[in-house]
Write a structure and sequence with these properties.
four-stranded antiparallel beta sheet; alpha+beta; about 15% helix; nine-stranded antiparallel beta sheet; 3 helices; 13 strands; Jelly Rolls; globular; about 210 residues
Length: about 210
């Protein structure tokens, strides 16, 4: 399989072996639906700015975030609708969603894996993208240390198997290319039904 930007009208299995499975599918929802959901979430979600400790000082997390349980009362309608679409598409009974707002090319997430103790054993993760296209990097930790770059177009879905969290890091790097805001919805199955989210210092922040 070639490495670099990955596109195509059909679902694309990026890798499927003993180290896990990544599958990318563009156009899970229409361009118009993706734009409508993006606008609703951008304006309607109480986005939080977070800080974390790094090298003895607090630094800003370079994106805005929010988390929900899919079964909680008062769940925003768009998130409920998106959850139903993703669950129907994947067949996975997701229980929570983490939202990330990348305001421009300087917002990012460093290469990482999800906290295994916060995931139901064996359950995949699905990432739905809205807004501007951003590139996600998938980096294998052990030999042959493969790397795949996936341009996450609006309305696309990337599914990562549970095993990938042991063998790959994934992230959204900064870019100097001018780019508009993007929202990702990361659907997970939590073992305790909680919304999840890293335990950083948070404060509400208007977009």
């Amino acid at each position: 399989m070639s490495q670099g930007g990955l596109f195509g009208p059909e679902p694309l299995v990026i890798v499927d072996d003993e180290h896990g499975r990544f599958a990318y599918e563009p156009d899970v929802i229409s361009e118009a639906q993706a734009a409508a959901w993006f606008d609703a979430l951008l304006a309607g979600i109480p986005w939080e700015a977070q800080k974390r400790s790094m090298y003895g000082r607090e630094v800003d997390v370079p994106r805005l975030v929010q988390h929900y349980r899919l079964a909680e009362p008062g769940l925003p309608a768009v998130i409920g609708e998106a959850g139903r679409v993703v669950i129907a598409r994947t067949g996975i009974p997701f229980t929570s969603v983490g939202l990330n707002l990348y305001r421009d090319g300087q917002d990012s997430v460093a290469p990482h894996n999800d906290h295994i103790e916060e995931l139901a054993e064996g359950a995949s993760i699905a990432l739905l993208s809205l807004g501007a296209t951003r590139r996600m990097t998938l980096r294998e930790r052990e030999a042959p240390k493969r790397r795949f770059d996936v341009d996450m177009v609006p309305g696309s879905l990337l599914t990562m198997s549970y095993a990938t969290q042991f063998h790959y890091d994934h992230g959204i790097p900064k870019t100097k290319t001018p780019v508009g805001p993007r929202i990702s919805l990361a659907f997970r199955v939590r073992p305790d039904g909680k919304a999840g989210g890293r335990r950083y210092v948070s404060q509400r922040r208007p977009v």
